[in-house]
Amino acid sequence: MDAIAGYIAEHPAMLIMIIVFVIIFILYFIFKKLVKLTLVVLFILLAAAGYYYFKDPNKTAEKIKNTSDTINAGINEVVDKSKNLYKDTKALYEKSKEVPGDINKLLKDSTEKAGK
């Protein structure tokens, strides 16, 4: 055990490689199960959608169109809000650049008034 600890102490790169390998190994098994679960859920959703589509194709097509229109409207709204957020953040950043100079000016004026 002391030999292993001594080897790792002398070669820290080996320790990093072992840690990365263990993390990749753990993530592989987690994502392997996650991918299987995702495929099963996707299959169930597609089967349910197919059932409702074959049950009444016209009604289902209208619902899909309405849903896609609603999603597109929501996406456009989010895009507009994010553009406005970007503009507002940029303006706030420009104003924040001026703050340190203003604070220094106020401190300088207060020290002159105090007579120090």
What is the residue-mean pLDDT, rounded to a whole number?
Answer: 83
Shape: flat
Question: First CA to last CA: what distance?
Answer: 67 Å
Structural class: mainly alpha
Main β-sheet description: none
The number of E-state strands comes to: 0
Fraction of residues in β-strands = under 5%
Low-confidence stretches: none
H/E element string?
Answer: HHH
Residue share in helix: over 70%
- How many H/I helical runs? 3
Taking Cα atoms only, what radius of gyration do you get, to the nearest Å? 31 Å
Q: What topology emerges from the helices and strands here?
A:
Layout (H helix, E strand, L loop, with lengths): L1 H9 L1 H44 L1 H58 L2
Helix pairs in contact: 2-3
Top keywords for this entry?
116 residues, 3 helices, single chain, flat, 0% strand, mainly alpha, 96% helix
Short note summarizing the structure:
The protein is mainly alpha-helical. Helix content is 96%, strand content 0%. The protein has a domain at 1-55.
Describe this structure in words.
- This protein is mostly helical.
- It has a domain at 1-55.
- 96% of the residues lie in helices and 0% in strands.
- The protein has three helices and no strands.
